Fold this protein.
Amino acid sequence: MPSALITGITGQDGSYLKELLTGKRYEIHGWQRDECDVTKPESLRVALQQSQPDEIYHLAAQTHVGQSVKDEAATMEVNVQGTINLLECAREFVPNARIFFASSSEIFGCPEESPQTEKTPLNPVNPYGVSKARATEAVQQSRADGVFAVNGILYNHESPRRASNFVTQKICQGAAAIQRGEQTGLKLGDTSAARDWSDARDVVRGMWQSLQADAADDYIFASGQLHTVQEVIEIAFETAGLEWRECVEIDESLFRAAEPCRLVGDASKARKVLGWEPQNSFRDLIVEMTQAAMKHQATRSR
């Protein structure tokens, strides 16, 4: 039975990855942050020595762009130093383990080309992107030193388990709450902002596939399509049976100071090398998220 250690196991991606690996009969190890803090090498050493994993999925991070601006130092400590700590401890205590690092499309920031490939130069425009870029480079260096370490460059990916501080879930939950009369409107920032959104379950499958390859490498996991926040609004409110124009208010205080430009990923390498294919469409994903929010709201109000 293969074994896997998942940092960030309680998050959206971690929970889906746990289910995927359980279905493949893995022995799963994972801790909450207060049980295994990646910023503390001793904590990581104990976790690795206890679990002796064949595969390590490093998902734990400060993942919200807005929060990274408010607390840049903490973002760097968790996302950069935490990743370096894990790589160094793994090399010392489980040298044969294969490591997956959850990088981000934000490493490209305002890129020179669109769509982006694994060879697109890094050009982050916010602290979160900078932190992920530095960690990505640390993973590449460890690979050059002989560690089986993979960067999964993840574009935005959502699911019904997405935290409510991300705009897709904020919209879906907002539509559900308005439908039930629990709130009267929804304030949003720049609805023209565009992202390459995928289903988190598709992305998690790619994580696993990347560690089954013959050699470690970097892979983009993305839909290859840009959609706007406005499209999310229209699909979510249509699903809830509402007219979005009567419910949505634009609040300029919610606009980002540094907005990435045309982040759309070319996942052809993952398709060719790993056989990875996304299975759920953007529209179906937003419909599912809204329906799940409506069901949750109905259950909670009983």
About this structure: The chain has a mean pLDDT of 94. The chain has two domains: 3-158+197-221, 167-193+226-259+280-300.
